[in-house]
Amino acid sequence: MADAPTRDNLETFPNPNPARDYEVRIDAPEFTCICPKTGHPDFANMQLTYVPDRLCIELKAYKLYIQGWRNVGIFHEAVTNRVAEDLIAVLKPRYLKLVGAFHAHGGITTTVTIEHRSS
Predict the structure, then answer these.
(1) CATH of the domain at 36
(2) Which site from 40, 54, 101, 115 is most exposed, i.e. has the minimal number of CB atoms within 10 Å?
């Protein structure tokens, strides 16, 4: 299986209004990774919400980063946490919430939610 993408792939740009708290929401409804047990694809909607501090995420770089998980064997909890960790490390946001809403397999869905607040 492929290697996971790294936070080095995440590009940013300066926050155009750092004096104001505002929320950015990005949905990635075509997120895919591989179940490490069965090798079957897992599909999810990755919903990112954040309040930027000094930096914002560049959308094309984020899209390519998200697509990079396509052939990675990883559990839902691990991939959602890893994506959140990478985003937090790069953006250093005032607030970040990442929801990984995984589609049903065998009648079971999984939703993993990570929240981060700057200290």
Answers:
(1) 3.30.1130.10
(2) 40
